Amino acid sequence: MQKKTALTIAGSDSGGGAGIQADIKTMTVNGVFAMSAITALTAQNTTGVTDILNSTPEFLAHQLDAVFTDIYPDAVKIGMVSSAELIQVIADKLTEYDAKNIVVDPVMVATSGARLISDDAIAVLKEKLLPLALLSTPNIPEAEVLSGMEIHSPEDMEKAAGRIYDEFGCAVLLKGGHDLNDANDLLCTGDGLRWFKGKRIDNPNTHGTGCTLSSAIASNLAKGMSLEDSVDQAKRYISGALAAMLDLGKGKGPMDHAFAVEGEY
After folding, report:
1. CA pair distance 156, 172, nearest whole angstrom
2. Residues forming the active site
3. What is the model's pTM?
4. What is the pLDDT of residues 69-85, one digit of tens each?
């Protein structure tokens, strides 16, 4: 039996709602075999992050070598990477192994507006990693950093997505929300712009939505779907996970990644 495979390169969330844990759950439910290279360990739950222990560049490189030299991934999702040195390692290894279907979720700005990674890390992300990507999936604050402009309207989203595409050469899924529109996302490719309409689900438990969406897209690309179909299917999956209304923890809780799992086990 053969199965399509996907690799997530991201941090571990001990609370299970985001990061590596969300990625593996999402990839598994979406029908691919999930592998991981961990950039950082976090002490984290639904109320916040209390500590972070970053991987060394050398150990991250060894993880990537171990994956690519044995079970070659059909797609790669990259989440939060905190340092310039780690981003450089990832870019070098993806280039060395000629990785395919790379989806970068450029986690840079917290919901509160606080920067999560340093300016030098952002510079390396722009210079080395985004040009390797098939798709980047910034939210509005992250797209403002990447495009160098403020975003206050759907028209601004279109302009910013175009700027990012032109500068880095990768397709852009600019995620709506942040009170700008009704969960509508904008895909910018060499063929133009396409809006993916979404209905906002009244569920406060949205921890890990960005990780989940990018991992679902990578899973679909691994299975051979087109980019547009991959995004469409991923948006339907995340809507279902939110609509399941899982309620765990004392803070902003996780979604039910396994809402569609059926069968004896």
Report:
1. 14
2. 175, 206, 208-211
3. 0.96
4. 999 999 999 998 989 99
